Amino acid sequence: MEDPNGNLADSERKPLSYVISDCVQRWFQDTYKQARAGDPAMMVLLAQMFHSGYGVPKNEQKAGVPRKRAASNGKLPDQGVLHH
Question: Where is the segment annotated Disordered (predicted)?
Answer without folding.
Answer: 56-84
